[in-house]
Write a structure and sequence with these properties.
This protein is an alpha+beta fold. The protein has seven helices and twelve strands. It has one domain: L-fuculose-1-phosphate Aldolase (3-Layer(aba) Sandwich). About 45% of the residues are buried. Bound molecules: zinc ion.
Length: about 250
């Protein structure tokens, strides 16, 4: 891992290597985001060659983690003039450079195959959140189960890790209503929800969208949501809520 001193800490099922020169901080129930998640090399705002490598790496990993299946989901990384995004209809698991589309910040498609149906949503998030270097839309195996519960807006898991608490402080994750993929209504509802909780949202009965300063942060956020959804779903089934903040 780039810039890591290989010091590893396991919490809530996650093993995290800390970057060189950054002293570990004491854990709290609500640790500040920046002390916990800037483990990597800053923003993904980069040239095209770097963007391609990073985008393919995260796409393949998301597929391996079953955050996406078949041709579902989409991922993008910001570049100097806009962003690169997975093409429509391609599997993230088998994504190649020829499957990547280049898009300007205003949503104009400039190169590559037809971009993802959710390109307008990615463009809107990049325009509204300057810190966003990467965006991931995923479904997962468990996230849709909690996203379909209409009593959960915002969603606060009955059990969650300190990583979740850091990423999604009170009042939890907002849930966007069920709206057509690629629609203006979905874009506007997503922006309203992100204004409440800027690191990710649930899409009703569908999945979730996360963003990070770089693509690995966006992937971490997705992993954390999926793990919390897995645990929360079973805790609710067993009627055994455990509270937030275990370590
Ligand atoms: Zn989807």
């Amino acid at each position: 891992m780039i810039g890591s001193d290989k010091t590893s800490t396991a919490r809530g099922g996650l093993s995290i290597e800390r970057p060189t020169g950054v002293a570990p901080r004491a854990l709290t129930a609500r640790p500040p985001w920046t002390s916990r998640f800037l483990f990597f090399e800053g923003s993904d705002v980069m040239d095209t060659a770097e963007a391609v490598g990073r985008l393919l790496d995260v796409a393949h990993t998301a597929y391996s983690l079953r955050l996406v299946t078949a041709t579902a989901g989409n991922v993008s990384v910001r570049t100097g003039e806009g962003f690169m995004i997975s093409g429509s209809g391609y599997s993230l698991g088998w994504l190649e450079e020829k499957h990547l589309a280049t898009v300007k910040h205003d949503g104009q498609h400039t190169a590559g195959p037809t971009p993802s149906l959710e390109t307008s949503l990615h463009a809107a998030v990049y325009r509204s959140i300057k810190e966003a270097g990467s965006i991931l839309h995923f479904h997962g195996l468990w996230t849709p189960q909690v996203a379909i519960m209409d009593t959960l807006d915002p969603w606060v898991p009955s059990v969650c890790s300190p990583d979740f608490a850091a990423l999604f402080p009170d009042p939890g994750i907002p849930r966007v209503p069920a709206l057509a993929a690629g629609s203006v209504e979905l874009v506007n509802a997503t922006l309203r929800a992100l204004a409440r909780q800027p690191r990710g949202i649930l899409l009703c009965g569908h999945g979730a969208v996360t963003w990070g300063a770089n693509s690995r942060e966006a992937l971490f956020a997705a992993e954390i949501i999926e793990m919390a959804a897995h645990t929360d779903y079973h805790a609710r089934c067993l009627n055994q809520p455990g509270g937030c903040g275990y370590s």
